[in-house]
């Protein structure tokens, strides 16, 4: 358990905007040293401005990184450690909000969505975990998934939600392995509902190799439709609020960060259907 993050080097992927920047800001406010990487230079420039405005520019570094680039991931971590000290907190936040009808998905849609949302997280673990283990000071891993990954199925989410569900399962297994080895390294998975981010700009970031004629690229509803019933609670959260939730999870070594409890009925409905399928009379024996 990391009761304090002060002085701890934190590496945040997709950290130039949205949830990644919210987590970085929350960590920096408590004295962490923060390395941010992002695919977009304009987002990195935005992060630099925020660091300067909030007074943590002297504890900040920014790198351009595509998380599917394994050598680039290792090189960014090398440079971050050289400038800010040994890695203590790894935040695998980078992702793409790919949305479209899964029955019409192309190989390119699958390769891009899975490559960033799942393999990008795995690349972070392979590159980062040995560094945290090596210094023996302990640390924490945060993987960002989605609350939609535990809710009932919705239209347009047939690639996005499965990748995020895999990140949840990955984190659960990672935490178990770390605990079994007695390592002082915690693990949390952040499952955001609607947050005010740039996720609607996802298709602007699709690499040329994956730009094909696909309804995932021509959909009319950015990132699919959202549930209408908010239960009176705040719907679109500020990314900094998610950052504060994540900071609490790091300090207390909480496994799950669920941002929108008002969607619990959808989660219950999905789980109830699974439990019903396990009843003795569900299938002929």
UniProtKB/TrEMBL annotation:
Lipoprotein found in the keyword field: no
UniProtKB keywords: Oxidoreductase
Annotated SUPFAM superfamilies: NAD(P)-binding Rossmann-fold domains (SSF51735)
InterPro entries in UniProt: NAD(P)-bd_dom_sf, SDR_fam
CDD domains (alphabetical): SDR_c
Stretches of the chain forming a coiled coil according to its record: none
A Pfam family it matches: adh_short
Family (UniProt): Belongs to the short-chain dehydrogenases/reductases (SDR) family.
Name of the protein in its database record: NAD(P)-dependent dehydrogenase (Short-subunit alcohol dehydrogenase family)
Record organism: Sphingobium lignivorans
Taxonomic lineage from the root: Bacteria, Pseudomonadati, Pseudomonadota, Alphaproteobacteria, Sphingomonadales
């Amino acid at each position: 358990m990391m009761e304090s993050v002060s002085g701890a080097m934190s590496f945040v992927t997709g950290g130039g905007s949205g949830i990644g920047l919210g987590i970085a800001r929350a960590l920096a406010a408590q004295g962490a040293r923060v390395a941010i990487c992002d695919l977009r230079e304009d987002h990195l420039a935005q992060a630099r401005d925020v660091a300067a405005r909030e007074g943590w520019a002297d504890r900040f570094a920014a790198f351009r990184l595509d998380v599917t680039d394994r050598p680039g991931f290792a090189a960014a971590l090398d440079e971050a450690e050289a400038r800010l000290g040994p890695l203590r907190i790894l935040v695998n936040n980078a992702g793409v909000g790919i949305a479209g009808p899964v029955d019409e998905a192309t190989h390119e849609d699958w390769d891009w969505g899975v490559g960033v949302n799942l393999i990008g997280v795995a690349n972070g673990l392979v590159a980062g975990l040995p560094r945290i283990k090596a210094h023996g000071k302990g640390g924490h891993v945060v993987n960002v998934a989605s609350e939609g990954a535990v809710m009932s199925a919705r239209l347009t989410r047939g690639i996005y939600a499965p990748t995020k569900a895999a990140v949840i399962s990955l984190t659960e297994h990672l935490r178990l392995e770390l605990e079994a080895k007695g390592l002082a390294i915690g693990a949390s998975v952040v499952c955001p509902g609607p947050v005010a981010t740039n996720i609607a700009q996802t298709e602007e970031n699709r690499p040329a190799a994956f730009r094909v004629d696909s309804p995932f690229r021509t959909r009319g509803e950015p990132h699919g439709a959202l549930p209408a019933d908010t239960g009176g609670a705040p719907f679109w959260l500020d990314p900094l609020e998610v950052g504060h939730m994540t900071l609490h999870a790091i300090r207390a070594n909480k496994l799950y960060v669920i941002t929108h409890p008002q969607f619990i009925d959808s989660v219950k409905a999905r789980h109830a259907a699974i439990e019903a399928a396990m009843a003795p009379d569900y299938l002929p024996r």
